[in-house]
Amino acid sequence: MTSDSPPDGGAVEVPTWEEVARSHGRFIYTVAYRLTGNHDEAQDLVQEVLLRVRRGLASYRPGSMEAWLSRITTNAFLDEVRRKKRRPLEVVPDLPERVTGVDQEPLDVLDTSRLPEHIQEALKSLPIEFRSAVVLCDVVGLNYQEIAESLDVPVGTVRSRIHRGRAQLRAMLG
Amino acid sequence: MTALPPPDSFELLSAYLDGELTEAERAQVDDLLAKSPAHREELARVDQVRTWVRALPPVEPPDGFLDRAIAAVAQPPAPAKKHKWGMLNLVATAAVWVLVLGFVNMSRSHDVSPDAATLAQTHTEASAGFGGLLGSLGNGQPEQQAAPQVDLGQPYWAPLSLPGELTLRQVQINDDLVGLVYCNDSDLVTLYEEPGKLDASALSGARQVTVDGNEAWMLETENALVLIVQRDDLVYAVVGPPDGQLVQTVAAKLPSPPSPSLTDRLGDAGRGLLDSFGLG
């Protein structure tokens, strides 16, 4: 068990990375899946996050473990997105591009649009910056200041991205 | 006449729902909502979406995934084989192995699924071992200019150079797996070869991509990118810098190995052995 010392000098137990992985694995996987939109990429992302947790646990200060993990997950996700932009490999898609059929009636779309998989597909269609902000706010539950620190942008930018992300989601979901 | 609200006033609505406004801003939004049907409608739309996203359930990882991921992360990295040999020693060692590998693999055609994560880790450690030598190594030419390749015996082969101005610097042999280390001015690429047929279904963590129109499987780590491809009787894993450009170039333009007869193969192996020890 690794220990860490808070500013007041009292000893606080910090879990090992394996304990973090077991106790928060489902949380990390949920954030990873909401960010990436598919299970293959979510699994790759979780593994990368666990590597970073293992390497970086010494820098963790007792506080919100979920905020710390979601920051690592988001950063790993954004690193991966940047890496892909530099390398134009053609990835064979493993999911259909759209869930809603083009011949569906508008009413059908409206009726089914609240299903989790449809909301997830809409999330996946958002620009990365909007998606990250919305996931950190509405899935993880971070406040704007925490999101700003996670994404390394001003709070005003977070406010704008969250609203524009939600507005685009609403437009996509009918 | 009532002044129109500023265009970005809509962006306050999400923050209003999230309780992220100052008192002054909140009063401003209350005022807008009292006067503007458009803002009221937008608030209702955004509130609906916010409710939907917040109601998304937790996502269950596939059965056993977390255990496998934890085991993979906990696994100590495979030790890199670091040899500081010159090209002559390299050829000599390769030639000594040629008889063994040639016979062992003549009739072998088994399924192969490289452990891409371990290869990436091994490559990363090897890169660290080469360190500041990259520039001086890359600028030099192989000591044996005449030979187009090092003869490792079929189906293995080791071209002395690869696209990207990469020059062969080291051969690592571990059972059926051969690792060829190449350098240019700034980067190091390892080309792993293993005879057999690629079993893509058993690749852990790699996803399918296309490289120059051919199917391949890719795994990315923080420090390396791996592309796995099948060419003839060999499964190649190209491991290099994480930006992927060099790895993609190598994987797309892997030269084709020669196909000598068994007699030629054994003859060449013997000649290579004799040459290596200056007896040819």
List the helices and strands and how they pair.
The complex is a heterodimer of chains A (174) and B (280).
Chain A: E1 2-4, E2 12-14, H1 17-36, H2 39-56, H3 65-86, E3 90-91, H4 106-112, H5 116-125, H6 128-140, H7 144-151, H8 155-172
Antiparallel strand pairs in A: 1-2
Helix pairs in contact in A: 1-2, 1-3, 2-3, 3-6, 3-7, 6-8, 7-8
Chain B: H1 12-17, H2 23-35, H3 37-54, H4 65-74, H5 87-105, E1 111-112, H6 116-130, H7 134-139, E2 149-150, E3 158-159, E4 161-162, E5 166-174, E6 177-183, E7 188-195, E8 197-198, E9 207-211, E10 214-220, E11 225-231, E12 234-240, H8 245-252, H9 262-276
Ranges of chain A where pLDDT stays below 50 over 5 or more residues in a row are: 1-10, 89-113
By DSSP (H or I, 4+ residues per run), the number of helices of chain B equals 9
Helix content of chain B: 25-40%
C-alpha Rg of chain A, in Å?
Answer: 18 Å
Largest protein-protein interface: A-B, 54 and 49 residues
Strand content of chain B: 15-25%
Order of helices and strands of chain B: HHHHHEHHEEEEEEEEEEEHH
Q: What composes the largest sheet of chain B?
A: 8 strands, antiparallel
Mean pLDDT of chain A equals 79
In whole angstroms, how far apart are the ends of chain A?
50 Å
Beta-strand residue percentage of chain A: under 5%
The gross shape of chain B turns out to be elongated
- What is the SS-derived class of chain B? alpha+beta
Largest sheet of chain A: 2 strands, antiparallel
**Oligomer designation:** heterodimer
Radius of gyration of chain B: 29 Å
Order of H and E elements of chain A: EEHHHEHHHHH
Count the E strands of chain B: 12
Our measurement of the CA-to-CA distance between the termini of chain B, rounded to an integer number of angstroms, reads: 102 Å
Helix amount of chain A, in percent? 55-70%
Question: What class do helices, strands and sheet pairing of chain A give?
Answer: mainly alpha
